[in-house]
Write a structure and sequence with these properties.
Number of helices: 8
CATH class of the domain at 40-60 and 91-233: Alpha Beta
Strand content: 25-35%
Shape: globular
CATH topology of the domain at 40-60 and 91-233: Rossmann fold
Structural class: alpha/beta
Distance between the termini: 35 Å
Oligomer: single chain
Order of helices and strands: EEEHEEHEHHHHEHEHEE
Number of strands: 10
Largest sheet: 6 strands, mixed
Protein backbone atom coordinates (compact mmCIF):
# COMPACT_ATOMS: atom_id res chain seq x y z
CA UNK A 1 0.00 0.00 0.00
CA UNK A 2 1.31 3.43 -0.96
CA UNK A 3 0.25 7.02 -0.36
CA UNK A 4 -0.42 9.71 -2.97
CA UNK A 5 3.33 10.38 -3.25
CA UNK A 6 4.16 6.75 -3.99
CA UNK A 7 5.75 6.07 -0.58
CA UNK A 8 5.06 2.71 1.02
CA UNK A 9 2.88 2.90 4.10
CA UNK A 10 3.40 1.05 7.36
CA UNK A 11 0.06 2.21 8.77
CA UNK A 12 -3.09 3.83 7.51
CA UNK A 13 -6.22 4.62 9.50
CA UNK A 14 -9.49 6.10 8.30
CA UNK A 15 -12.20 7.70 10.45
CA UNK A 16 -10.95 5.93 13.57
CA UNK A 17 -13.01 6.31 16.75
CA UNK A 18 -12.82 4.72 20.19
CA UNK A 19 -15.65 5.40 22.62
CA UNK A 20 -16.12 3.92 26.09
CA UNK A 21 -19.62 3.62 27.52
CA UNK A 22 -19.88 5.46 30.81
CA UNK A 23 -22.56 7.20 32.83
CA UNK A 24 -23.79 9.86 32.49
CA UNK A 25 -22.12 10.33 29.08
CA UNK A 26 -19.81 8.17 26.97
CA UNK A 27 -16.10 8.96 26.95
CA UNK A 28 -14.53 9.58 23.55
CA UNK A 29 -10.87 8.49 23.74
CA UNK A 30 -10.04 8.79 20.02
CA UNK A 31 -12.05 10.85 17.56
CA UNK A 32 -12.01 10.85 13.76
CA UNK A 33 -8.35 9.81 13.49
CA UNK A 34 -7.19 9.52 9.89
CA UNK A 35 -3.46 8.92 9.74
CA UNK A 36 -0.78 7.69 7.34
CA UNK A 37 2.67 6.60 8.54
CA UNK A 38 5.29 5.80 5.91
CA UNK A 39 7.42 2.70 6.20
CA UNK A 40 10.66 3.48 8.01
CA UNK A 41 9.35 6.59 9.76
CA UNK A 42 10.32 7.58 13.32
CA UNK A 43 7.25 9.17 14.89
CA UNK A 44 6.58 10.63 18.34
CA UNK A 45 3.06 11.25 19.65
CA UNK A 46 2.88 13.89 22.34
CA UNK A 47 0.09 15.45 24.32
CA UNK A 48 -1.19 15.86 27.87
CA UNK A 49 -2.22 12.91 30.01
CA UNK A 50 -5.61 11.66 28.82
CA UNK A 51 -5.08 12.92 25.27
CA UNK A 52 -5.44 9.42 23.80
CA UNK A 53 -1.82 8.48 23.05
CA UNK A 54 -1.91 5.04 24.67
CA UNK A 55 -5.33 4.27 23.19
CA UNK A 56 -4.05 5.09 19.71
CA UNK A 57 -1.09 2.73 20.16
CA UNK A 58 -3.38 -0.03 21.42
CA UNK A 59 -5.65 0.46 18.42
CA UNK A 60 -2.76 0.40 15.95
CA UNK A 61 -1.43 -2.80 17.51
CA UNK A 62 -4.77 -4.57 17.45
CA UNK A 63 -4.92 -4.75 21.25
CA UNK A 64 -8.11 -2.68 21.32
CA UNK A 65 -10.91 -2.79 18.78
CA UNK A 66 -12.12 0.56 17.43
CA UNK A 67 -15.71 1.65 17.83
CA UNK A 68 -15.63 2.76 14.21
CA UNK A 69 -13.13 3.05 11.38
CA UNK A 70 -10.44 0.98 9.68
CA UNK A 71 -6.75 0.26 10.29
CA UNK A 72 -4.26 -1.14 7.79
CA UNK A 73 -0.85 -2.51 8.73
CA UNK A 74 0.99 -2.72 5.43
CA UNK A 75 -1.49 -4.40 3.09
CA UNK A 76 -3.46 -6.12 5.87
CA UNK A 77 -6.69 -4.59 7.11
CA UNK A 78 -6.24 -5.10 10.83
CA UNK A 79 -9.88 -4.43 11.59
CA UNK A 80 -11.00 -7.24 9.28
CA UNK A 81 -8.85 -10.02 10.77
CA UNK A 82 -10.15 -12.76 13.04
CA UNK A 83 -8.46 -13.42 16.37
CA UNK A 84 -6.05 -16.06 15.10
CA UNK A 85 -4.85 -14.04 12.12
CA UNK A 86 -4.56 -10.92 14.25
CA UNK A 87 -2.41 -12.75 16.80
CA UNK A 88 -0.15 -14.05 14.02
CA UNK A 89 0.27 -10.57 12.53
CA UNK A 90 1.20 -9.12 15.92
CA UNK A 91 3.73 -11.90 16.54
CA UNK A 92 5.42 -11.58 13.17
CA UNK A 93 5.27 -7.86 12.46
CA UNK A 94 4.78 -5.78 15.62
CA UNK A 95 6.90 -5.16 18.71
CA UNK A 96 5.28 -3.59 21.78
CA UNK A 97 6.72 -1.62 24.67
CA UNK A 98 4.11 -1.20 27.43
CA UNK A 99 4.10 1.36 30.24
CA UNK A 100 3.52 -1.46 32.74
CA UNK A 101 6.36 -3.55 31.21
CA UNK A 102 4.14 -6.70 31.04
CA UNK A 103 7.02 -9.03 31.93
CA UNK A 104 6.25 -12.59 33.01
CA UNK A 105 7.26 -12.84 36.70
CA UNK A 106 8.26 -16.53 36.55
CA UNK A 107 10.72 -15.97 33.70
CA UNK A 108 14.20 -14.46 33.88
CA UNK A 109 15.10 -11.25 32.09
CA UNK A 110 16.67 -13.32 29.30
CA UNK A 111 13.61 -15.55 28.99
CA UNK A 112 11.28 -12.57 28.89
CA UNK A 113 13.34 -10.83 26.21
CA UNK A 114 13.53 -13.95 24.03
CA UNK A 115 9.87 -14.88 24.41
CA UNK A 116 8.77 -13.56 21.01
CA UNK A 117 11.66 -15.37 19.34
CA UNK A 118 10.60 -18.56 21.14
CA UNK A 119 7.06 -18.22 19.78
CA UNK A 120 8.50 -17.72 16.30
CA UNK A 121 10.45 -20.96 16.59
CA UNK A 122 13.95 -19.46 16.65
CA UNK A 123 16.44 -22.07 18.03
CA UNK A 124 17.60 -21.54 21.62
CA UNK A 125 21.30 -20.79 20.85
CA UNK A 126 20.32 -18.13 18.33
CA UNK A 127 17.78 -16.63 20.74
CA UNK A 128 20.33 -16.35 23.52
CA UNK A 129 22.98 -14.89 21.21
CA UNK A 130 20.66 -12.17 19.94
CA UNK A 131 19.29 -11.26 23.36
CA UNK A 132 22.68 -11.20 25.08
CA UNK A 133 24.17 -8.98 22.38
CA UNK A 134 21.35 -6.51 22.96
CA UNK A 135 21.60 -6.81 26.75
CA UNK A 136 25.29 -5.92 26.62
CA UNK A 137 24.46 -2.77 24.64
CA UNK A 138 21.89 -1.56 27.17
CA UNK A 139 23.65 -2.57 30.38
CA UNK A 140 21.76 -5.73 31.25
CA UNK A 141 24.49 -8.28 30.55
CA UNK A 142 24.96 -9.14 34.25
CA UNK A 143 21.21 -9.30 34.96
CA UNK A 144 20.07 -11.86 32.40
CA UNK A 145 19.27 -14.52 35.02
CA UNK A 146 17.27 -12.26 37.35
CA UNK A 147 13.49 -12.41 37.46
CA UNK A 148 11.47 -9.17 37.19
CA UNK A 149 10.89 -9.03 40.96
CA UNK A 150 14.64 -8.63 41.44
CA UNK A 151 14.95 -5.81 38.90
CA UNK A 152 14.35 -2.09 39.33
CA UNK A 153 11.67 -0.33 37.31
CA UNK A 154 14.27 1.04 34.91
CA UNK A 155 15.83 -2.40 34.44
CA UNK A 156 12.43 -3.93 33.74
CA UNK A 157 11.81 -1.19 31.20
CA UNK A 158 15.03 -2.09 29.40
CA UNK A 159 14.02 -5.76 29.29
CA UNK A 160 10.66 -4.75 27.82
CA UNK A 161 12.34 -2.67 25.12
CA UNK A 162 14.74 -5.52 24.33
CA UNK A 163 11.80 -7.92 23.95
CA UNK A 164 10.10 -5.50 21.56
CA UNK A 165 13.05 -4.97 19.22
CA UNK A 166 15.12 -8.18 19.35
CA UNK A 167 12.97 -9.87 16.71
CA UNK A 168 13.48 -6.98 14.25
CA UNK A 169 9.73 -6.38 13.71
CA UNK A 170 8.52 -4.19 10.86
CA UNK A 171 6.72 -1.93 13.36
CA UNK A 172 7.47 -1.01 16.97
CA UNK A 173 4.80 0.67 19.11
CA UNK A 174 6.39 2.10 22.24
CA UNK A 175 4.36 3.59 25.08
CA UNK A 176 6.65 5.90 27.10
CA UNK A 177 9.73 3.72 26.41
CA UNK A 178 12.16 5.98 28.29
CA UNK A 179 10.04 6.40 31.43
CA UNK A 180 11.99 5.61 34.61
CA UNK A 181 15.32 5.63 32.75
CA UNK A 182 18.34 7.82 33.36
CA UNK A 183 19.81 9.91 30.59
CA UNK A 184 22.60 7.48 29.63
CA UNK A 185 20.27 4.48 29.39
CA UNK A 186 17.65 6.45 27.45
CA UNK A 187 20.32 7.51 24.99
CA UNK A 188 21.52 3.91 24.54
CA UNK A 189 18.00 2.64 23.87
CA UNK A 190 17.22 5.43 21.44
CA UNK A 191 20.50 4.78 19.65
CA UNK A 192 19.51 1.13 19.17
CA UNK A 193 16.09 2.09 17.90
CA UNK A 194 17.53 4.64 15.49
CA UNK A 195 19.97 2.04 14.19
CA UNK A 196 17.16 -0.44 13.53
CA UNK A 197 15.18 2.31 11.90
CA UNK A 198 18.08 3.28 9.68
CA UNK A 199 19.42 -0.18 8.80
CA UNK A 200 16.22 -2.25 8.63
CA UNK A 201 13.61 0.46 7.93
CA UNK A 202 11.80 -0.50 11.12
CA UNK A 203 8.92 1.90 11.69
CA UNK A 204 8.72 3.37 15.21
CA UNK A 205 5.77 5.13 16.80
CA UNK A 206 6.27 6.42 20.35
CA UNK A 207 3.92 7.97 22.84
CA UNK A 208 6.02 10.18 25.04
CA UNK A 209 6.43 13.15 27.33
CA UNK A 210 10.22 12.91 27.01
CA UNK A 211 11.89 15.79 25.14
CA UNK A 212 14.78 13.44 24.24
CA UNK A 213 12.41 11.23 22.27
CA UNK A 214 10.71 14.19 20.61
CA UNK A 215 14.09 15.60 19.57
CA UNK A 216 14.98 12.37 17.78
CA UNK A 217 11.64 12.07 15.98
CA UNK A 218 11.31 12.97 12.33
CA UNK A 219 7.60 13.54 12.82
CA UNK A 220 5.84 14.92 15.88
CA UNK A 221 2.09 14.39 16.26
CA UNK A 222 0.32 16.27 19.05
CA UNK A 223 -2.93 14.82 20.37
CA UNK A 224 -5.53 16.71 22.38
CA UNK A 225 -8.76 15.04 23.50
CA UNK A 226 -8.23 12.14 21.13
CA UNK A 227 -7.78 14.31 18.04
CA UNK A 228 -4.69 15.34 16.08
CA UNK A 229 -4.07 18.98 16.91
CA UNK A 230 -0.72 19.27 15.14
CA UNK A 231 1.26 17.04 12.76
CA UNK A 232 4.76 18.34 12.16
CA UNK A 233 7.44 16.91 9.88
CA UNK A 234 10.80 18.06 11.19
CA UNK A 235 14.53 17.54 11.16
CA UNK A 236 15.54 15.55 14.26
CA UNK A 237 18.41 16.44 16.53
CA UNK A 238 21.33 14.09 15.83
CA UNK A 239 23.13 12.79 18.88
CA UNK A 240 26.78 11.82 18.50
CA UNK A 241 27.50 8.31 19.82
Amino acid sequence: MTNDHGAKLAIRTTDLWKTYEQEPTDVVAVADLSLEVERGDFVAMAGPSGSGKTTVLNLLGGLTQPSRGQIWIGDEELTALDGKKLARLRLEQIGFVFQAYNLLPVLTALENAEFTLLLRGVPAPERRKRVMKLFEEIGLGDLADRRPGKLSGGQQQRVAVARAVVGNPALVLADEPTANLDSATSTALLDIMERLNRELETTFIFSTHDPRVMERARRLITLVDGRIEQDERRAPVRVET
